[in-house]
Design brief:
Jelly Rolls; five-stranded mixed beta sheet; alpha+beta; about 350 residues; 5 helices; 12 strands
Length: about 350
Amino acid sequence: MVQYKLIVLVAAFCGVYGAGYDRQDFISTGICPTRRNVILDSFLSPHKEIVILSDLHRGIIYEQTWNSSSFKRYSECKFTLQTLHGAGLYLLVRKLQLRRDAKGNCIDLVTVKQDENKKTRFCYTPTDVPRSFSSESPMKITIKLDHYTPLPTVEDTLQIQLVVTPKYECVPGTKMMKCLPYVFDSCIDASFHRDGTINCPDCADEGGCQVDLEQVYVADKQSIALTAFVSLLFTMGLCGCCIWGLYKHRRCITSCGSNSGTRNNNNGGGAANNEAGRRRASAHHGRRTQSPGVLSVELPGSSNELRPSAPTLDEKDLPPSYDALFPIAAVASTASGPTTVSTATSPTIPLTEVGRELDPTK
């Protein structure tokens, strides 16, 4: 006991190593081996990873983050923390972002084994104070990741931050800070006081737990299913609106095309009616210029298509006159009496289209 106090006094006054933190991660230090090397390492190096804090004025900050791809390569991380004989440890879980199911059960978890084989399993940090552990003997820590269960989204991560601080008995007249007022062996180095990192339980070294801690994301399967269902309904509604808009646009195009065709038909019908009117007017004008004695027949079709089907009366051969046929009768009538006008010797009466004079002798 006397030797321990001398060591503490020498370290306190001389400050051989100086106060501060060693920042480490679990992968580069070999605390978290990959899954393919777990079985091989169990035969080659069966001993567990042991971390010894030999400097009472320096702490260790472990911090590790896994993304949606890297966490699948690791399944279990085990290591043991211990310090010099006669000293103890404070372990504070500063950040912890692991998964829980809908019932609150841990998918990934951290196990801390303290004095007398006392085990504590957890997967989240309280919202009021960080989770803290104190031990006078070596402290065993195990981190298990369920690499079979994928993360909810690609952007999600798993994160853990541990702060390990050596503690020892308080010696009057030395630069120490007492974390717990009524606990004699709860002193830490004075350099940890108000340094922005929580070292003592209940955040006594920082004047109280006033720092907002990160909340653990809990994957709620019911919320995920509800979100997917709402997204599906929204997508179906959007597709329905697009189809309805295309249908309305198609009807508009059809009606516009039919209206254009109707206008073209009306214009064409008007031109045909005008052409027929002009034809009727020209035909009526032609009838008024004809002589009254000529019988005209209006046939359907244009005037150019009307052609005479028989020769005219002037072109026909007329029968010979009566005098040419009966010359004796004309001479007898001249000798017997006064001169009379005979129909045989009279000028030839032109025949009309209505009828012609027939010879009674025929």
